Amino acid sequence: xxxxxxxxxxxxxxxxxxxxxxxxxxxxxxxxxxxxxxxxxxxxxxxxxxxxxxxxxxxxxxxxxxxxxxxxxxxxxxxxxxxxxxxxxxxxxxxxxxxx
Length: 100
Fold this sequence. Notes:
Blueprint: H1 13-96
């Protein structure tokens, strides 16, 4: 549609229609861009959800391992204390026997 250059003024319906059609095309372009951006955001969001799920699974796994090794470390500390006491007792026995 072509804007006529006659002197109908700014209230001419054809001029208003053409301006509104231009505005509609501009808004449709903006809408297309926003739809594409939204699609990209949704893809990133899905990817992040999947990654978070995998990371949470790993966290649970490593917390279990950590708990296991904390228990094992405590067992080894207790064993070490017992062995130190046994060695101390053995050294005392050898001293009493005059062997050292």
